[in-house]
Amino acid sequence: MPSNLFEYYAWDYRLLKRFARHHSTGEIIPEKLVNSLQGARNMFAATEMQRQVFYALIDQMIFGEQPEPARDMSQLVYELKREHTSWNHVDGTHWHIRFSHLLNYGAGYYSYIYAKCFASTIWQSICEEDQREVFQTWRS
Length: 140
Known about the structure:
Order of helices and strands: HHHHHHHH
Low-confidence stretches: none
Number of helices: 8
Distance between the termini: 20 Å
Largest sheet: none
Mean pLDDT: 88
Helix content: 55-70%
Number of strands: 0
Structural class: mainly alpha
Radius of gyration: 20 Å
């Protein structure tokens, strides 16, 4: 969850203006540019959420309380994608064998979605307003 929370700082102009400068002119990053990037950042939020839920579903089907019996993983991924997403499957890609989180999380990938929700709540209720106070609290 900390990485999700710290992403908010990476998009906060109050922090960016302290170090984000043009490499040759030294000009501080324009606030208008940061605002524009922030707007684009959430452009495909629904698609990203669908992708994360899809990954969590695969994880639960493989490692959950009632895992799938031994079967062709590529076929399972294909079926889940067809049933639960809005994008097309590309035959022969086998992307899931390179998605290390499916092995590292062990039926816990869904917690990534919770972590994003918790980070958002913490940011909005504690961190967004007075960052100096938050930093001092975290340092002690």
